[in-house]
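Notes from the 1:1 (GR / supervisor)

We went over the backlog. Supervisor wanted to see one worked example end to end before approving the batch request, so GR pasted a single chain during the call. The sequence is below; no edits were made to it. Supervisor asked that the structure be written out right there so they could see what the output format looks like.
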Amino acid sequence: MPVVKQVNINGDVIGDFELSGNIWDAPVHVPAMHQVVVAQLANRRVGTHNAKDRGDVRGGGRKPWRQKHTGRARAGSTRSPLWVGGGVAHGPHPRDYHQKVNKKVRRIALRSALTLKAQENGVLVIDKFGLDSPRTKTFVYFLEKLDCAKKPLFLVHESDAAVTKSVTNIPGAHVLHVDSVNVYDLLNHKKLIATPEAVRKLEEVFGI
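Structure output shown during the call:
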């Protein structure tokens, strides 16, 4: 079973924390992670983009000049895509970008992402935050002392306004509830800093 460091809010190592091998030492399935990340980014797209084609642009009903004997190219409408003020050829229209991913594939991808983080020594367990009010300086000192200042991801088991407001002011840092854990955020952040309760919740839900 993988073993990671357990630290306190002051950045001091207070012991080791044993992780379950079911999700922290699972086979790394790269195609599954790729499929889930692509689907997750696609599902974020609103798909409301729209461009007017030649049939949607106002005007252009009259033929600009006669067909022959003018010395100019043939033209049937001033709203052709070739004309200034004309419609857009093959422009975007509203569409749904949603991609379905099977539940089994999502679970495999999440286990793979967690395993990858553990293999890269990118996992820390924080004992507790213990903040009564937002304290960004406390988190900055904590991250610098543990060399985790670059894009850390805090995984919490319950909402904590003090923690969320403190981390919001740190560039690249993000707080995520354990119920919202996803493959993209795990791969996009360098370090995963989780509470013991959040780790056990992951093992309980995805360890089967």
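Supervisor's comment: Strands lie at 3-7, 13-18, 123-126, 152-156, 174-177, 191-194.
Batch request approved.
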